Amino acid sequence: MKLLNKLSRFFSVNSEQQAYDRQLLVVVFSLMAVGLVIVASASIPEGIALSSDPFRFLKRHLLYVVICLALLAGVVSIPMQRWYDRQNLLLILAFLGLLAVLLVGTEVNGSHRWLRLGPFNMQPSEFAKLAIVLFVASYLVRRQEEVIDTIKGFIKPLIILSVFALLLLLQPDLGSTVVIVVVMMGMLFIADAKLISFIGIAVSLLAVIVVLIVTSPYRMARVFGFLDPWADPFGRSYQLTQSLMAFGRGGWFGQGLGNSVQKLEYLPEAHTDFIMAILAEELGFIGVIVVIVLEFVLVYKAFSIGKKALQQSLVFSGYVAIGIAIWFAFQTAVNVGAASGIAPTKGLTLPLVSYGGSSLLTIALAVGLLLRIDFETRQASAQVRLTKPKKKKRKKTADKEEINETE
Asked: Among the four 37, 112, 344, 390, which has the fewest Cβ within 10 Å?
């Protein structure tokens, strides 16, 4: 009863009187908790195979979550103006990180995407996503009229996008490339860029992505494997067919936590890219729906925070929140779609659920920014309410005098 009373008091405060969005924080913690449980279950076989420690990946994931919580608390205390002032520095650091991966990066499964830092691996492409969001938001603050009125203002940020996309494709990492393209184009669209310019650039970028897929046997195999996975279930479509089996075994309520068969080294990357398949097998359709709803609420909250910030003329903060919302929405859709056979496999994590230190840390940074934006928006709204002049009531005596004069 005491716990219920505390929870009721926690949510009973008027949303306008709260210093931050408490519901957003609850959603984030819920997704982190689900991630801990599913990573613990899905990674046991691989942990035993690598080091005879069934909880090898759980321990690392738990360490990442603790760091994320500390990072989130730190980011909330940093004013958005500082992020605006230093977004160029963050963009340069992201660029140097992507360049360093190509020069001294660690090769895993034929890709150079990680930098080894002692016992940990860092993936600069994850931090590049946040750097692009901050850069585009600051560009829209400085050049929004140019973006709206001329094609020149629309093309300028695409030069930065091209450089980052090239570095990502050299790794190769088509998934992260598509994410930053979608995020940048989405933010420019929200900023009221000319529809003709937007359609022209979007079609051109789509054509480039198609060419990249067609000219790469590896990417081509993934696309054809997605279109007809059962044509080659033990070759190019092995991951997808095993994932679909996991979904099929799950049914409505799943096989029970820890009872997945596909995680027993049948499904590669079970605790990272295909964690949704293990969740579906163990917790069923109901578990999948709960996680998707939580991710949807997270995206909705981010969009809502961005909209309110723009209404308070906090332009940079508003565009940052909207960029984060587009990023989370697209990455969630691709991850769930790839695991269920709706979209080609892209190697993207499920936000706040999948195993992966770089992904968790970057998303924690983004969530901290959302909470800070919400805090500053509420402060601005409160100041407007306090400074708004109150309407003076007309005195009854004055009203009577006016009546007498008219008579």
From this structure: 390
